[in-house]
Amino acid sequence: MNRRRLYKAIFSMGIQHSMEYRFHFFLSLLGAAFPILVQYFIWTAVYRYSGQAALFSYSYGQIILYTILAGLVSKLIATQFEQQIADDIKNGGLNKYLIKPVSYFGYRLVSFLGQKVIYYGITALLLIGIIWISSARQLLDVQAVRLTLFAFTLWGALLLNFLIVYCICAIAFYLHEISYFFVITSLLINILSGGMFPLEIFGESVVKALQFTPFPYTIYFPVNVLSGKTEMAAMYQGLLVQGGWILLFFWISRLTWRASMKKYSAVGG
Amino acid sequence: MFHTMRIARKYMTLYGIFIKNCLIAQMEFRGNFIMSLLVESVYLLAKLLYVLVVFRTDLHVNGIPPEGLLLFIGMHTVATGMYVGLFFTNFMKIPEYIKDGSLDLMLTKPVSLQFMASLRYVDLALPIPDIVVGFVMISIGWNAMDIPLTFLHFAGFVLLLVVSIVITYCLMIIPALLSFWFVQTGSLFEMAHSVWDANNFPMAIYPAWIRRIGTFVVPLFLITNFGPMFLLGQLSWLYAAMALIGSLLLFVAIRLLWKQAVKGYSSASS
Known about the structure:
Chain A: Keywords: Membrane, Transmembrane, Transmembrane helix. By secondary structure, chain A is mainly α.
């Protein structure tokens, strides 16, 4: 089977997999709406009491828009394959990939992208609605260049998050019981990426320090590109930095997996 | 009367044995115990971000300053600790019992099936960070709001804490109960958990219609609002007593619903 046909098959398997649980997906979208609603009421109370036009450099409209967009983007880039990889390593499921002419990394990446295609489409529809409403309420100045860059950086965010998680998964070669570990890392990464609150609530120095990490480039940066909070020049610079992180993590993932694979003892399978 | 006392004593002894048994099991896997502690601490850290926002914006809700809001956030944290410690593991297991038929074995035991299925496991690691940090927040709020530490204040607060545990049990068991009728309830639990976090703040931040639903229809707000409101003098003894009666009625309703659900149990896969 040639490579293109192989990856096409894996991609379509990913799509089928995501469609298998579509009811679950819609319910989880609904579930994601609750924290957004709670935050909406909290921010409304905060702005009403403070009487200030802007807090943490966000106006009331901007912070609500941030909350909604960050909720959507974090749902979109979320990975669910950590446990599968850990199981493959623990129970020897990895063996069948090692002896076949297919790269495990390629398999996971293409299958992940396949799973996300439908989500991306639905998120895009929701985004169109949100952008339309917020531009009608003059919260958002819709610019073609921002929309295009947002679409780009969203794919970048998807890829970067995949690579970060894939690197973390290599730890499964060393630890046997790792499900707890994934819960901790995914929550911490979400907080540091600005998935719960805009990073500004931590203070200026923390925002500056976090700029030197890959995390803001998965949620905080794409959201601010769309909302217009990021300046034009900073936007292109951010896009380059995001690309740099993707390359770096691609390299790290190869390195860690190559080193860890030497430890792999192929138990079971 | 004597008979009821004897039954209550039997169940209390049994619950004591459950706790002892769970402690022994958890101590066997000490690494897991520490990991559970860590996981819950990270969740707690995420919740504390709300405290950060409250203090950084100097948020006042209905005239209650940030320190007073700690009473509410602290109460929510304690309630979360109680939930994950006493009920969470059990409620997640109920759908499995139904699916794989292990409920059959429980049916044959000479104790109440609901007691056995919904209270068998107690997690002693998960609640530690929540309960410790929650009570610290409540103490800070209690002190900052100059609430006198009298027996009456204390008794009222403890009473409302018990009410909150009873309501938590009744509301959070609903997704598990639904699994008698539906097979896949994972997303229902997910929804229930995201609604649970709506309690992180005083209900005064929500519009009146949400407050009414959350108090009278699905009494979610009673879990964390009534205790602090009582301490702040916003809730009379009458309402506290009504909350107690309401929670007991809710428990009776859940008990009847459970019995109804078990009637339809067909022991499909065993």
